[in-house]
Every structure is written in C-alpha cells, then in structure tokens.
Amino acid sequence: xxxxxxxxxxxxxxGVEAGSKKRALEMLSxxxxxxxxxxxxxxxxxxxxxRERLGGTGVGHGVALPHGRLRSSDLTIGAFVQLRQxxxxxxxxxxxxxxxxxxxxxxxxxxxxxxxLALLAAMFSNDGFRDKLRGADTPEDLYNLLKNWQxxx
Length: 153
Prior knowledge:
Blueprint: E1 12-16, H1 21-34, H2 41-54, E2 58-60, E3 63-64, E4 67-70, E5 77-87, E6 97-106, H3 111-124, H4 127-135, H5 139-148
Parallel strand pairs: 1-5, 3-6, 4-6
Antiparallel strand pairs: 2-3, 5-6
C-alpha cells in the first residue's frame, strides 16, 4: 500500500482555518465525500467523531490521524488538511495539531486499516517531512510531497 492509493489532489486542503477539532473533522469529512458517489459527509463525520470519542487520534508533534469505518464504501479513502494555525486535538503531548490525515476504511476491513495507519504513523514520525508539509503553499505541493514520500530503508 502507498499513500497515493489513499488520496487524490481533490482531497487535500492547504493553509485553512479550523478553529476547533469539530470543524477540522467537518472539513475532512467534506473532502472525503467530495468525489465519492456512495459516501456522504454526514456518515464520514459521524464515523470520525465516534472514533474520537473512544480516544483521541492526536499522535503528537502536531499530527492527528482521525480514522473510522464506513458501511457505504468498499474503498479505503484518505484526506489531508494543513491548518494555518494549530488546534487543540487532545494529543498525548498536548501540542496543537496542524497536520491532519483522515482515513476511512470499509466496515469489514482489518488488515488494510492497520497497514494504512502504520504507514501514516511512519510517514508523520519524520521531523523533516513534517516540516516540508508545514512549508508547502498549495494543495498540489502537499499532494506531491505525500505521493513521493518513501519509507526509510
């Protein structure tokens, strides 16, 4: 699995204002539903919010990986948002979150879900890569960074 399998340029937002965790999840939900015929914004938001209620998905270093399951899709779908200013996301390190990658998987998915989360965790654990994402000025720049990221060998 590669990041390019999860995301499209249309599901990336750059330099946006969220103001709150709820608004950030709404934005991610809108991005995910934008180009999916079988998925609607409300279902995506409800899935992401339900997972957040089980425990926050802020992983530290200004990154959150909200994720959930969708009954209405058989695809694993991602969206990425770079916020202009960090928000409180309840991360373990108490750092504000400004980089959010949302992941939605089919309801019955298990291995694929875990593989995708592991890939994202590896990607966002790299200080230099996070800095590049924060320095990007356009959705296209963000897409190219995400698309071309390679795990350290």
